[in-house]
Each structure stands twice: as structure tokens, then as C-alpha cells.
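call fold(seq) -> C-alpha cells
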Amino acid sequence: MTHIIESRATSSVNTLRAALEQAERQVTRLDGSNIKAFLVLLDGIEQMFGDLGSDQSALRAEQGRWEGLRSRIDANPQLLVNAAARAGGLAKLRAQHPPATGAWWHLDTRVAQRRTQTLKRAGITIVAVVVVGALALWAINATTPGAGSPSTVSAQIEALVTAQNLPAALAAVEKARQTTPDDAELLVWDGVLAEQLGDTARAKTSLAQAQQKFVGQPAAFWLLVGNHHQQVGNLPAAEAAGQQALTLAPQDADVTFLLGSVAEARGDSVQAAQFFSQTIALAGDANPQLGVIAKMRMGYLTQQVQPLPGPAPAQTITQTLTPQSP
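ret:
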């Protein structure tokens, strides 16, 4: 009986080692076709360690390999997120494999948090630059005709939005509309900010009024709405507006750039790269500045999807693991 128990334990350890070897090989070659199996494999490895809990002294080498594998994943979660995006996204995969409690099933959240922190740090710098510029413009305009010009008002609103002080931004819009109540961009800002602050009735009214100012230019209206939604952080609304604009103007580089920016902020690097590539092609000589910006964003995305450090890629094992004889 003791021999049978020892044989079973040895077989289980061998199965665990084979699973670890398969995961170590796959981690460097993840794509939409194998990401689901890889995530399930990680669940299986974790379960095997739990099943072998009474024999931990014999698993030191395997525990070291497991910790090393998880460290490689933690060092570059974007690699798994990008592969999952090709299979519909981690949210979809989690729904297919409940309870999906392993940390690897939630790497999209971590990537989003990191991106938010990066954007916040960049936002602080941008706010400082914008505020200094706005103060300089105010100093110039205060002594010349045209104080409170559209460019100054726009800079003030955008600075407040970047700082996420949306109530103050809406107050600035209201003040500016006292002078120019029918300004199209102010109406869009009013609608977008009101919606973000929960006043949907006001938002619908303001956006409907703004849309009337874009007779003959419907795509320009949706582009402006999408850009402002993105600025306040409402990515679903920004994407919806961008798709409306794309339907009306599929060859507009500014529209594809907006959709690329939304996809990038959402963590879908593959789709973002596709839209930025379209932007570069559509911008051409007509809008070289936008083309340069799109190329820079493409370069940033390329850096985000570099392979994880580790052994050279090896052939992926795809067959079902079976216990090996001791």
C-alpha cells in the first residue's frame, strides 16, 4: 500500500513538472489561439500544488520554477493581455472559465491601472504646461483687445478637464457662454461635461443644439464629441461617437486617430495599432503633423508588446498532459 501511495505521488509530481515545462515554453509564444489553454494550464498548476500540499519538501525546485514563471508574467502583463485581446479579451475569457480567481485572469485590470497612473503623471505635466501657457495668454490678452478669446477659454477648460476638476470646467463653460451662447464647441463641452456629471437631460439638449451648428459637417460634430468624451475619460461614449464619425467619413485621418487613442486607452493595443496605421496612411501630405504623432504612438505600442525576458522560444506543447511513469 505504501508503495502504491508513493508511486501515485511520484506520478503527480511528474505531471506537475510536465505542466511547468509546457507553461515555460508557451509563455514566450502566446497568441489568440493558445492564450485560453495557457490560462487554464496555470489554473491546473496551481491546483496541483494544492493537491500535493502534504509533500512540499519534495517540491522546492518546482516551487522555484512556478515563482519564476509568475514573476516573468508579472514583469510584462501586457503580453498576456495582448494575446487575450485577440481571443476576445480577458473579460470574455473570465466569463467562460469561472471562478477565474488566479491573478493571471485579471492582468487587464493591472495594465489599465498602470496606464491610468502613467496618464495621471503625464497629465500633471500637461496641466502645468497648459496653465503656464494660459497665464501667459491671459497676461497678453488682458492688456489688448479681445481678452477672453476662444483660444484662452478653450485652454482654461482643457486645463480644468485634465486636472479632473469637471465642475469647475462646466462653470467655465457657463461663464464663456454668457458672451457666446451659440458657440458650437462650448455647446459640445456643456453636453459632455453635463453627461459626465450625471445631468443627462442637459447633456442631450446641449448636444442637440451643437449638432445644429454642424449642418453639412456631421462627421466633424461626432469627431468633436468623441474627442471631448475621451478627454473627460468616458471611453465608451468616445468610441461610440468615433464610430459615428467613421461611418460618415471613413477616410478621415482625425477620426481613425481618435479611435486609435480610445483603443489604446482601453488597453487594446492590437486595434490601436491598426487605427494608427490607417491614420498614417490617410494623413499623408495633407496632415503630416498628425502622421508624425500617429507614428510616435505606434512606436510606444511596439515597446509595450516586447517579448518577455527569458529562454529562447521553443516549440509549443499542445497535447493533453498525461501522468508520466516514475
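Residues 192 and 203 are 6 Å apart (CA to CA).
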